[in-house]
Amino acid sequence: MTRRSGRSAVEPNSANGVKGAAPLRQARDPRSAVIGMVYRLHGSLRTLFAGPHARFGLVLLEALSLSVVCEAEEAPTVSEVGRILGYSRQSVQRAMNKLVEMDLVRAVDNPRHKRAPIFAATPAGISLSAQVRKKADALAEGLAEHFSDAEAEVLFREMERLLGCIKALTPQGR
To answer: What residue ranges carry the coiled-coil annotation (predicted)?
Structure first.
């Protein structure tokens, strides 16, 4: 993964780092600016990655929940999926109900809990998840072209550090 020389999909401006975007007021504390940028990145990434799952009739939370079920070492419960994704159990339950209706996952009796089933992907769910992942990976590769391996590694470590701080401050480590 190497940076394209002389080409950038986004040209920064001095106000906020993105040419053509509305200028942002500078935060008093650079650490506060980081949090603001994380929120902006979240919105931009949601917009960018909206296409892959929408083509297959899934909303974002359904696609994310399906991905968690497909990639889990052990079949997860709704609560476990919610904790992994940072969504409420109720929101994930609605998504899982839709995935069951679409025959992408199935509820299985949970030997550890009477009322909380675990969810396993069906062959159709595994196939669909792989197709969505392939489309999303292509978008991610497009982003990756703008960072050297060293830059990506530093960025990853810092984001991982920020996530650890957030988890330490979040009730129940969500």
So the answer is: none
